[in-house]
Amino acid sequence: MRTVLRRKAFLISSLALAVGAGHAVAGGFEKATMWDAKYSALGGAAASSVNNSSAIFYNPAGLAFIESNDIAIHASPTVVQSNGPANGSDYTKGEKLFMPNGGFTGAYRLSDDFVLGYGVYGAGGAAAKFKGVTTGSEFLGTALTGDYGTDIKVVEAGLALAYKINNNWSVGGTYRLTYAYADIDIMSKTEIDAGIAKLPIGVKVGYNKMSGIDSFGMRLGAMYRSDDNRFGWGLNYRSEVDMKAKGDYSGNTGAGKIPGYDYEGKVTAKTALPMQISTGVDYLVSDNWRLFGEATYTNYKKVNKIEFDSDSKVLVPVLNTNWKNQMNYRFAAEYYGLGDWTLRGGYVYTTAVVPEKYAAPTFSTPGAAHTYILGAGTSFLNDTLLFDVAAEYNRAKNKNVKGGGHLAGNSPAASGRYDTEAFALHATLRYKF
Length: 433
Known about the structure:
The chain is mainly beta. The protein has a single domain, classed as Beta Barrel (Porin). 6% of the residues lie in helices and 58% in strands. It is built from three helices and 23 strands. The strands form two sheets. A 14-stranded antiparallel β-barrel has the order 1-4-5-6-7-9-10-13-14-17-18-19-20-23. It has a two-stranded antiparallel sheet with strand order 21-22. A hairpin with a 4-residue loop joins strand 19 and strand 20. The longest helix is centred in the first third of the chain and has 18 residues, at 2-19. The protein starts with a helix and ends with a strand. It is found in: Cell outer membrane.
């Protein structure tokens, strides 16, 4: 069994470089929109209408309504920049990071009632980096200068089956293998007891080259389409998966090696990609216009900490996150009045996951996020080749974060200004056969 899991991990990790997930601007481990250009342009409001191989992710019940078999390649390159009080006090500009995101999906009709779906695709992630950060006391000679940041990628491989109950109703499910890769570097100022006073020192901890796979997760969905296809409703449920990633640990302080701690070793990080449920509707208001709306709830309150288990005595054994549950409210429209082209536009309002008290520059900004998307689609070769494209901008900011919570040990979360900005292009090429 262990050999089988290793082979699965190797298969998915070999694809991770191509389908690493984009950065979560205000959303824990995931963006408000992902990799399919058509449904990204609709703000991810796909649960009620998705009827191609991308249903493996957005709502597996939608596979039952496919018009034909298809295979698709998705690309969503993203540029993200996170800014904040990276050295504990000053507002610092982070690095602009390029994040690949995308995937491959396919659908094949087995019979009039059953459809098979399959794919490998980005499912989440986080990225931020700060260079030349100094923590500790330069006056006392306990300062430490270096680079730090977060790079987390979550990739899924899915196998789905949908059943068409009748002309209006369908149900479906996706079996998920979830692979996680992470590099997490932490820098902070802490205090040690020097006898007559507390001595401020800089600390850097690295948890690097960590990877792991969870072999059981599910997506379950239901969909309704009216006889005239003017109205649709959908429900998509994602089960929680545990994420355990094994890798290397390293540590350093501005005061040298503190007795009682180890400064290198092996470590296992533990957290979760939590349960999520989406429900949405769409309605054809005229021959040329269709409107979409969807709400997505994610149980991020489940992620109250990230633990680092090790046989070594590590400097930071736990990161206290105390994240909050998240809501995404999605609104979109589609316009058909331009001949072979379809125009799309969407907006997503995302509630903050990170509380101000536990803010960290290398994770999501502790504020609501706004996502704006415009896109278009057309077809070629007698509608056998479909091409969709979209452009996305999202931003989250909070100018007056209070901070103060203990993220790790006695290192408090910094107060001040936090913001994140991201740009993404989405492109999907789909072949129908």
